[in-house]
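Handout for the seminar on molecular recognition.
Each group receives one record of this type.
Step one: identify the two inputs.
Step two: read the structure output and locate the region that could contact succinic acid.
Step three: write two sentences on what you found, then compare them with the reference statements printed after the record.
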Amino acid sequence: MDTQLVELDLADWAGATPNEAWIAALEAGKVLYFPRLGFELRPQERELLTPSVLSPEVRNISLDANGRIKGVAGEARRQAVSEMVGRFRAQATQLIHGLLPHYTPALRLAPTSYRPAQVETRVQSWRADDRRLHIDSFPSRPNYGERILRVFTNVNPEGAPRVWRVGEPFETVAKRFLPRAKPYSRWQARLLQALHVTKSFRSEYDHLMLQLHDGMKSDLDYQKNAQQQTVHFPAGSVWVCFSDQTSHAVMSGQYMLEQTLHLPAARQYNPDSSPLAILSRLTGRTLV
Ligand code: SIN
Ligand code: FE
């Protein structure tokens, strides 16, 4: 199969420049992989690499767009964690501005997360289980086609890789699962909003994205037999993808930093490659 991974030689967060082929690959749903680009921890930050920095019952630590840190256990480590995550945010956003300057005025910063939990031992419902191939779509947060661009880095101190599976292109996924999708219902969407199940009105786009997400995750035969490749992201590497488009699953690993950025689909280099454009084309309908 065609690889869904594009390897880039960049070794400096500040040194990225735009390249037509990489941009087209990213917007086609491929993963840009930077084996030589790592996030450097300060010596005193080593002690933050333990699951005990997590508050009880919390999956991830997050730094919100206003710079507030959430999910850290104990007052003493809050500042240190906040500084580490904030430094990653600065570098990740610098990388994106360098690679994709046309996005810059339209990007909206979302939280930065620090994930110290071990992936292999997490217990989750099938719907929340990111060890199953999926595209990102969140039941409570409709986004009307706004893109989810993510920068990841593996900071594992023992050198354990973060192991992903990367699946087939979005259009292939959509063609497979759209015919099985439940029809959209506006009154149901209105009800979900009234009950505060969703934070805003769920559009047909958001409904279909969730149907693809659930369709993929609930189909064990698809999980096993769909076209896919396993990728080991070593400690000290970075990768970038549109996680609402790239079919992905995380199989193992521990200690990762992740930055999310949102972008209106219309502000892409090629808006026709977005999930919104693809789903609109395949259904023949306006979905937002
Ligand atoms: C996901 O976005 O599905 C999880 C990615 C990861 O934890 O490596
Ligand atoms: Fe995901």
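Reference statements: The longest strand covers residues 108-115. The helical segments are 20-27, 78-99, 170-177, 186-194, 204-218, 220-225, 275-283.
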